[in-house]
Amino acid sequence: MDAYAPILVLGLLAAGFAVFSVTLTTFTGPKRYNRAKVDAYECGIEPTPQPMGGGRFPVKYYLTAMMFIIFDIEIVFLYPWAVAFDQLPLFVFLAMMLFLFNLTVPYVYEWRRGGLDWD
Amino acid sequence: MSEYTFNDPWWLIILKVLAIFVGLVLMTLFTIWWERRVVSRMQNRIGPNRVGPFGLLQSLMDGFKLGLKEEIIPKTAHLAVYWIAPVISATMAFLAFAVIPFGPMVSIFGVETPLQLTDFPVSVLYVLAIASIGVYGIVLAGWSSGSTYPLLGGLRSSAQMISYELAMSMSFVAVFLYAGTMSTSGIVAAQEPIWYAVILLPSLLIYATAMVGETNRAPFDLPEAEGELVGGFHTEYSSLKFALFFLAEYINMVTVSALATTLFLGGWIAPWPLSLWDGANVGWWPLLWWFVKVQLFIFAFIWLRGTLPRLRYDQFMRFGWKVLIPASLLWIVIVAAARVVRNEFSVTTQELLLLGGGLLVVIIVGSWVLQVRSERRERAQVEAAKAEMDKPFDPYAGGYPVPPLPGQEFTYTSRRAKAAVVEGTATRTATAVLPGESADAPVPSTSDPEEGTHA
């Protein structure tokens, strides 16, 4: 059998269990309506306006996400290189070192510009 | 290449899937109980001991209780996403376990099969991919609740997980370099002579740190920082939906521990004194070694939680981006350079070790010299500051009364000088000298209080 088929079976079982659990409490739990109970939780005070749709959060998260993509691409290149390392000539090692250096330059730049400082 | 070919009959696949599923649920129940007991002992308490023998059924009963609780869905929630988020989290947590090897070939009902659900040449990449999808569950849960705290907690959590995923993924590169494969069973087989925890210790240290950040556990449990964010991304979740997030967190804990065992502690291979026994690495015994190794990591998780306070978010991000990532990059370069020297220049391992030892000595001596020099500079500064303290001190010199530092003596200021200061005609004659500043500019003399009027 295909090596990936068992994953599908496990995924179906896990998803089935999760969907079952999520829907189960709709039938087993009590239902007592209370206006305050269905408000967004904010330590008992009136909830502030919606963060969803029009809400704002720090742009720092985008910066982190972009840095993540850059480094993730670096890792995507590092993995096959590492696996095939012993079969590759010296040139490939040097090429990878150059690639790492090229990615370190913007990393250092962002570090010095304070892009990695969280306030 | 993967070690085994996987062509199990369909009933065996279903049996293995069921075993993994039930095993993970039991492991979660056990780990929650175990964690509560151990933390209790660390805090001079007893912990849950009423439900079942030693309180073992406590977490199961907690699960049942959650199932009988009212489900509160905030009216601001985006319903579809709100329902899907816990399903994503829990499913992905289970899925990551599909490629973990538990043992060698065994015979189940007459069929020879490895103790592993499946394996392919990119298994570790698959685990990382599944872990990345798991982040969706968290960020969607935070966003769809339509509430402030869950949104902040979800964003924090995702930023944290992707930051630490980088360090985690980079720590694997050295392992792949040595094993020459990404298949989990292949990596275990490559560790037959020696565990990677021994030869690639920095990788293990980076991974062990990153895995705590990746699973949002103490001391990196910032998404659940109660003082700031209530419960983080699952603040608005109740009853079994909350239980699913809890389940996912604990399964992830088991998964990263199992991955650490597979990549660094030789998987199911028996540790040294046991490996002298011929039967240690065949049949069902390896399952026990594997379990003990995984439990070691889980105990470390609990120990950390019982010991360390939570980090601040900026400290946490700084540690991930400015310590773990450069350290792992540097380590990759060192390992690859050592490997290439060994491959290309026919250097023996002994010579390589000598070279590395020499480098280490140079680094240690160099840092020692730097240390001595900086200490000497510091001492000179302290002495200069002391000398400054012995000079008489004029509290009205800068126009404002300044309290003297301990050990400083007052000096006399004439009325004329004070008047000149008030009129603004006097130059700054003296200020209180702080220990760090004295080495820089020469401080004007305060010996002549009349001097100020000449300006």
Topology:
The complex is a heterodimer of chains A (119) and B (455).
Chain A: H1 5-28, H2 60-83, H3 90-112
Helix pairs in contact in A: 2-3
Chain B: H1 10-42, H2 58-67, H3 79-95, E1 103-108, E2 111-115, H4 123-144, H5 148-179, H6 184-190, H7 196-199, H8 201-214, H9 226-229, H10 239-264, H11 272-275, H12 285-307, H13 313-344, H14 349-390, E3 392-393, E4 409-410, H15 415-423
Question: What this model shows, in words?
Answer:
The complex is a heterodimer of chains A (about 120) and B (about 450). Chain A has about 120 residues and is mostly helical. Chain A has a domain at about 55-120. Helix content of chain A is about 60%, strand content about 0%. Chain A is built from three helices and no strands. Chain A has helices spanning about 5-30, 60-85, 90-110. In chain A, helix 2 (about 60-85) runs antiparallel to helix 3. Chain A is flat, with a radius of gyration of 25 Å. By secondary structure, chain B is mainly alpha-helical. Chain B has three domains: about 10-345, no CATH class; about 350-410, no CATH class; about 410-430 and about 440-455, no CATH class. Chain B is built from 15 helices and four strands. Chain B has helices at about 10-40, 60-65, 80-95, 125-145, 150-180, 185-190, 195-200, 200-215, 225-230, 240-265, 270-275, 285-305, 315-345, 350-390, 415-425; strands spanning about 105-110, 110-115, 390-395, 410. Chain B has a two-stranded antiparallel ribbon with strand order 1-2. A two-stranded parallel sheet of chain B has the order 3-4. In chain B, a hairpin with a 2-residue loop joins strand 1 (about 105-110) and strand 2. Mean pLDDT of chain B is about 80; it is low at about 430-455. Chains A and B meet through helix 1, helix 2 and helix 3 of A and helix 1, helix 3, helix 4, helix 5 and helix 10 of B.
